[in-house]
Every structure is written in C-alpha cells, then in structure tokens.
Amino acid sequence: MRTILVTGATGRVGRHVVAGLRAAGVTVRALVRTPGSAGLPPDVEVVRGDIYDADAVRRAAADVDAAFLLWPSYSVEGAEKIVPELPRRVVYLSSLNAAPGSVWGDIESLLREAGSAWTFVRPSGFAVNAQAWAEDFRTGDTIRLPYPDAGRSMIHERDIAAVAVLTLLDDHHIGQTHDITGPEVITLGEQVATIARVVGKPMHIEPLTADAARQAMLDQGADPALADSAVTYWSSLVATPEPVTTTVPQLTGHPALPFTTWAEEHAPEFRA
C-alpha cells in the first residue's frame, strides 16, 4: 500500500488527484491549512500546515512514497526551503510555459538540483479559469476581455489530474516531462460564446486594451512583472496559438475533454 502526499488537495485539480489516488487504492495524505473546512473524504490523512512552512511540509512528507506538488504562488520565493523537505519522488504540476526564469521553470530547476525523482506535468491553460467570468454572466451581458482572438488549447482539470495520478503510480515516468493540452484550439471569445450557448444567455465582448488589461490584473493584486508577462503572452497567442498535443489520450487511453464538456458541467455557476 503506497502513501502519497497531495499538496493543493482542496483545489480545482487537487480534489481530482485525491479522488483518482483513492480509486487506485492508495493511501492519501493531504497538507491543508484548515482541516475543519477542507471537505476531504474521511479516509484521507490530513496534516495541518501551509506549503510555505518547511516544518509542516516535513511532517506531512514523513514516510510517504511520493508527493504531488502544486506551488500556489507566481513567485519562487521560499521554494528553496520547501523542495528539500519533499520525498524523493515528486510529480510537479508545472506549466506549458515553464521557460527558464519563470516560476515553473525555477521550481523544476530546484527539483532537479535536489536530486528528486521528478516528473513534470505541463498543462496548457486550465479550462476552469473561465470561472472568473461567472459573476459577469450572472449579473450582466458583457465580458471585458484582452485579445479575444487569442487561441488557447484549454485543458479540463480532470484530464490534468488523470495524468498526474498515473505518473504518481508508475515509476516509468520518472525523469519525463509531459506537455498536456485540450483537444483543440479555442479563442477567448469562443470560450465565452461556448458558455453563453450552453447557458442560453447571449453575451457581448468588450475588448480591453493591453494597458487596461494590465491595470485590471494590478487591481486584483497581481505582481507587475506577472501582469506584463501575461498581457504579452495573450498578445502572442493571436498570431501563434497554443499547441495541441496528443499526450492525454496517449497516456490515459481516452480523448482529452473539450471545452464544451467543461462548460456543460459548470453551467449552473454561470446562471443567475
């Protein structure tokens, strides 16, 4: 019986990772800040603590066989103290944009330097990020978007979790990097139109300028460097959309879930 530590266990992807590991008969341990409100199944071992607290991570990682790592910050600061406390076997939820100098690239470097038996799962944009538009859908008929023609290969959170689970359970993935995406390129505008069609509510798109998009991120507390890089990245996707890979069906044996499926599953969140 394996014991696997899941960080971010109460999040959008983490809950599916927990479910997949439990279905495989694995003992799951979760590091959570507030166990009382975590809402995890009773057979999950819960350790109270924060991912930024090296002592808490050390306690949570004691005697586990592997860990699923989700680093929740857009800054690598503090990670150099956390990575050494993890077990040797780590599956890290990275990003398709894990370039050198990015937070994802820096975490990957820390894991390599620590001598971890690592696997990097690099998803494209999360379909679930569209939840940020839910309030606009419920209360009005307009969505303000930067670069509505930016093309993304959005991936369902269940597919991310499915790949993470199988890589945690199969050591043949040690030392491998998996770029995973949804099955198609869909622009930001097409994402809005898909949700609108499923919900049955017409929505208008008001394009944002680059400066306005950057300011909106700053108003939400984003780091200026992150805001700049995000706006630059969205701009680049108009002419050069994100790639589409076949990694999900190759690894899991089932087709990657399209954005329409995600929209249908989450439609109640967008209805008044």
TrEMBL record:
It comes from the Bacteria. Residues 8-169 form the NAD(P)-binding domain. InterPro entries: Ergot_Alk_Oxidoreductase, NAD(P)-bd_dom, NAD(P)-bd_dom_sf. Pfam families: NAD_binding_10. This is NAD(P)H-binding protein. It comes from Kribbella sp. HUAS MG21.
